[in-house]
Structure formats: structure tokens, C-alpha cells
């Protein structure tokens, strides 16, 4: 599938690997793909993010992703559901970090030098980006398809982007026009 990626999309994937390595992660997750997208300039995804006002808010997005990693990647919905059961995720994170250090739940490891592998979430983003590209009759997978996939799949990246006003509908509207804001999120 990687041969179908544009140069911009390949750069995002390579950037995600680098973010995972730098963060000491064992795996590349969907959040690493989002971080790499935020780093890029000049691609279609960068254009869409800028048009949606995210260019000025990249650092708050990065902070929100880092906070989610501290919670072991639990989404807002997960945290709310646990709160309904009387479980305070913030308290649990604090206690784990007291005992094991800050970021203990973030899935970091020391050393090893191994290339991080893609986790289930990142693989789902890559697969969904292919389906979105095909649904739009695009021959290649671009960084815009990665952005749309990140917004289409439930999880921390979609939550963080939505908190900053970027949803599948808004991104598709910028990239393909208002008539494409709807059902393409379900592509595939």
C-alpha cells in the first residue's frame, strides 16, 4: 500500500516514526501520525488545517495529545464513562506517576534502538486513508486522506482535533467542497 502514498503522505509516515522514536514509544500510534501532520507545511492537509484555523493552535493540540498519552491514550469518552462508574482517571494517573514516574502510562521504553512498529490504531488510519482516497476517486493516498482518516476514526486524535474545530465534515468541506462533508467518513 505504501507505494500508493504521495511524497507528502510518506513524509507524514516517516515523521510519525520519528515522533515515536523521539518519545521513546514502543509503537507508532495514530497520535504520532497527527503530530507528523502538524509538522508539515505545504501539503493539502496543512492547507486544510490552516483554513480551519489550526495553524495558530498547533501547540495546544500537541499539549492535548501529550496529556492524552499521560492517560494511556484514554479518550474523553473513556474517561467520562469511567467517571460515571466512580473511577477518577486523573487520580489514577497521579498515583501511577507517583510510583513509577511521569509518563509511566504513555507506553515509553528506554533504549533498545528498535524501530517502532505501527499499532492497531495507526494501521486503521492507514487503511481508512486508502478507503477515503478510493471513495473520492483519488489514485494516490495523500496527507489529506490521512487527516480525514484521523478525524473519521474514534480515538484520541479525533477527539483532540474536534476540540479544536477540526472534524471529518469540516476538513472534507475545505478539501473537497461543502457537498462532500457528509457520508465519506463511512467510506469502507
From TrEMBL:
<keyword id="KW-0677">Repeat</keyword>
<dbReference type="InterPro" id="IPR004176">
    <property type="entry name" value="Clp_R_N"/>
</dbReference>
<feature type="domain" description="Clp R">
    <location>
        <begin position="2"/>
        <end position="183"/>
    </location>
</feature>
<dbReference type="InterPro" id="IPR036628">
    <property type="entry name" value="Clp_N_dom_sf"/>
</dbReference>
<dbReference type="Pfam" id="PF02861">
    <property type="entry name" value="Clp_N"/>
</dbReference>
<protein>
    <submittedName>
        <fullName>Peptidase</fullName>
    </submittedName>
</protein>
